[in-house]
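Practice problem: predict the structure.
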Amino acid sequence: MERTLILFKPDAVQRRLCGRLLTRLEDKGLKIVGLKMLQVTTELSRRHYAEHVSKPFYPLLESFITSGPVVAIVAEGPNAVTVVRGMMGPTNGQTAPCGTIRGDFGVSRQMNLMHGSDSPDAAKREIEIYFRTDELISYQPTLAEWVCADDEK
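Answer:
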């Protein structure tokens, strides 16, 4: 099983889409093992987006991600990173295909509703930024045997 960090960004929170987006993740069969709402600070933004801090677009990114509350989620499942990125769709909602979260709910490149880790290594680093170990809950859902075959786990 793989874990990934997901952020419902300030635009998703302000548009009251969090419940619908969370439902899509759960409907896909992902297990939610961490969930909380928080305000991203400048310091937290710089830790999360460390590789982008020196890039010209970073000030706009920081301004956006710190503009309102976010919902931070850790989801677990087979190939969770790839699955979530596929569900989100391309960054720009204008060109994201229907059926993806950004294609169904977005029309902007910057206000793109969600962040999802782009690799297992990034997921590990990002999860540690947003969650303490004791905030992540391991459990076995009663329907787990109906989500994927044993050889896919």
